[in-house]
Amino acid sequence: MSLDNNLDTLYRQVIMDHYKNPRNRGEITDGSLTVNMNNPTCGDRIQLQLKVEGGNVSDAKFSGEGCSISLSSASMMTQAVKGLPIEKALSLSEQFSKLVQGNDIDDEDLDFGDIEALQGVSKFPARIKCATLAWKALEKGLNEEKEETTE
């Protein structure tokens, strides 16, 4: 078995683990902002809730339904952004978008962790929207939060 094959198998296992055992699935009950997004092409729908305190994402949870790529991506994203400053979370989202489109990453200091498992999505252009749905919700929510705090 080749190294690429072993890596593909490992990445599939990571994706399926996040799909079957999602992290941070649920609701934030106090002081959160909520973003609803859907992908009408395939029916994926995500509700992302974020709690931002002192310029940092202190909590992130999601609910919704969709394919394994969409929901595992939401699970990975909520894990990755907890505790990050808004700007760092937005940067991670931007770099993730590049990753799943098969482009080079600008910021080598970012720790993708399990998120790297989604880099193979670039081979399936129709699935890129599935992988980025929760991330687009993150961007929308954090950009709205930034606007509110600067007014």
TrEMBL record:
Stored SUPFAM superfamilies: SufE/NifU
GO MF entries: iron ion binding; iron-sulfur cluster binding
Any Pfam family hit: NifU_N
Gene Ontology biological process terms from the UniProt entry: iron-sulfur cluster assembly
Superkingdom to which the source organism belongs: Bacteria
Annotated ranges, domain NIF system FeS cluster assembly NifU N-terminal: 11-130
Family: Belongs to the NifU family.
Name of the featured protein: Nitrogen fixation NifU-like protein
